[in-house]
């Protein structure tokens, strides 16, 4: 039987090692690589082209949603399963829009992860049962339809990437170097972000990034 070639993206070393140990006990799964940042994940997956990527939604430099979007773009056959402690809509729906085929709560990893890997590897989708129940309750409570829940994001993928780096307290110069773009381009993006969001301070941008799931609230892990 062909093994499911799996890549693990998780920024917490202890969690990453624990998940890897779980996967390596499974005869039908081969762990082909691992990374602790979004940039590393995208770079390695472009070369390795794994069958499945297990993607922590909150990683430094590039969050799991943007990393998912870039991986799907460069390796369309790769399936992404998001791993998260969050079950709120502002985390789930951006991941789905980016192309994720599964969403597993970290509390449910032992019960659900192996099933999720095999399900998405076959081209299907998988969500932790807790997620399904939570979304149904949200839908009933708010009465929102799918179009309202999936309303367009005001920022482009590049703007969200830069917003995350701003919220992580990178300077414009460091952002330019990290993304291999000019300082003037970073400044232009920063201005556009502030105008689109009508937020005109770094502190305000950080609050927005936390509220929309781009970065974790300090101490939330």
UniProtKB/TrEMBL annotation:
It comes from candidate division TA06 bacterium. This is Response regulator transcription factor. SUPFAM superfamilies: C-terminal effector domain of the bipartite response regulators (SSF46894), CheY-like (SSF52172). GO terms for molecular function: DNA binding. Residues 148-213 form the HTH luxR-type domain. Keywords: DNA-binding, Phosphoprotein, Transcription, Transcription regulation. GO terms for biological process: phosphorelay signal transduction system; regulation of DNA-templated transcription. It comes from the Bacteria. SMART domains: HTH_LUXR, REC. Residues 5-121 form the Response regulatory domain.
